[in-house]
Specification:
By secondary structure, this protein is α+β, with helices and mostly antiparallel strands. Helix content is about 40%, strand content about 15%. The protein has one domain. The longest helix is centred in the last third of the chain and has 13 residues. The N terminus is likely disordered.
Length: about 100
């Protein structure tokens, strides 16, 4: 059996994989890996972190963390006001 994934359920059967997409909405509290999979969310994050390659192996280490947690690290170097705007934009996606 394939483990359950954040945005969908994957089950391996004798006939192959069955995948069911969930309707879980993306938010500031979603894991970074789920946000990066969504082109709109990825573009929003990239606009706040223009010097960060979101597909780089060093960033993939943080894929299991929420965007909120990632923004709490001083290395991100964006202020509280920008974080609040980022949260608002991500939460407004509604998907």
């Amino acid at each position: 059996m394939v483990p359950c994934q954040a945005r969908g359920l994957a089950i391996q059967t004798p006939l192959g994989d069955i995948r069911e997409e969930s309707t879980m909405a993306l938010s500031f509290d979603s894991k970074l890996k789920d946000l990066v999979k969504d082109p709109e969310a990825k573009a929003i994050i990239q606009s706040y972190w223009p010097d960060v390659d979101l597909d780089a192996p060093t960033i993939k280490i943080a894929y299991g963390m929420t965007l909120r947690k990632c923004c709490s690290f001083p290395q991100i170097e964006i202020g509280d006001e920008a974080i609040a705007k980022l949260e608002e934009e991500i939460n407004a996606l509604g998907h």
